[in-house]
Amino acid sequence: MVIEINKDIDRYKESVVMGLTAKQLLFSVASVAAGGGIVLLLYSHISLTASVYVAIPVAAPIALGGFYSFNGMGFYEYMGRKMRMIFANHPLVYVSTEGEETIREIRMEEETVKNGKKSPQGKKRKRKKISKRKGKGKEL
Q1: In angstroms, how far apart are the furthest CA atoms of the chain?
Q2: Percent above pLDDT 70 for the chain
Q3: How distant, in Å, are the alpha carbons of 1, 20, 110, 123, 129 from that of 105?
Q4: pLDDT of residue 32
Q5: pLDDT digits (tens, 9 = 90+) for 19-66
Q6: Which of 38, 96, 111, 137 would disulfide-bridge 129, Cβ 3.0–4.6 Å?
């Protein structure tokens, strides 16, 4: 006896009607109902073609809610995250830990090295220590 099992059992989905899952069936019925209702309501006021063009932007997101999946996220979750990234994402700001005086000293040392002279202090600048847990330090 041979029983066929999907190799990727996590992606297995049980079909309800015509190969559609319950979620896909629900969203497709809602999409057709919304689009059809808009076409029937607007057909008498504007032409059939124009009423279909009005219905598509309403029906398409509803249908995508049932069929679209990206990285395990549904359409609405994906678009919600995308909108947060576009509108609610704050830029990261870098704040230097060195003061202006230290930067001037480093630039002066670089200029003296370029000119072939010794540094005015005659030694390298001191390195700061960052204290970590239990008082141990690490040089930068």
Answers
A1: 91
A2: 76
A3: 82, 70, 9, 12, 18
A4: 92
A5: 778 888 888 899 999 999 999 999 888 988 999 999 999 999 988 888
A6: 137
Amino acid letter, 81? R
Q: Is 25 exposed, middle or buried (0-12, 13-18, 19+ CB in 10 A)?
A: middle
Q: How far apart are CA 28 and CA 12, in angstroms?
A: 20
CB 28 within 8 A of CB 34: no
CB-CB contact of 66 with 53 (8 Å): no
pLDDT digits (tens, 9 = 90+) for 1-19: 787 776 766 666 676 677 7
For the record, the structure tokens of 51 come out as 């009423």
Asked if residues 93 and 112 have their Cβ atoms less than 8 Å apart, the reply is: no
- Average pLDDT for residues 106-117, to the nearest whole number? 86
Cβ-proximal residues to 52 (8 Å cutoff; 6+ apart), any chain: 39
Mean pLDDT, residues 82-92 taken together: 87
Which burial class, exposed, middle or buried, applies to 27 when counting CB atoms under 10 A from its CB (0-12, 13-18, 19+)? Answer: buried
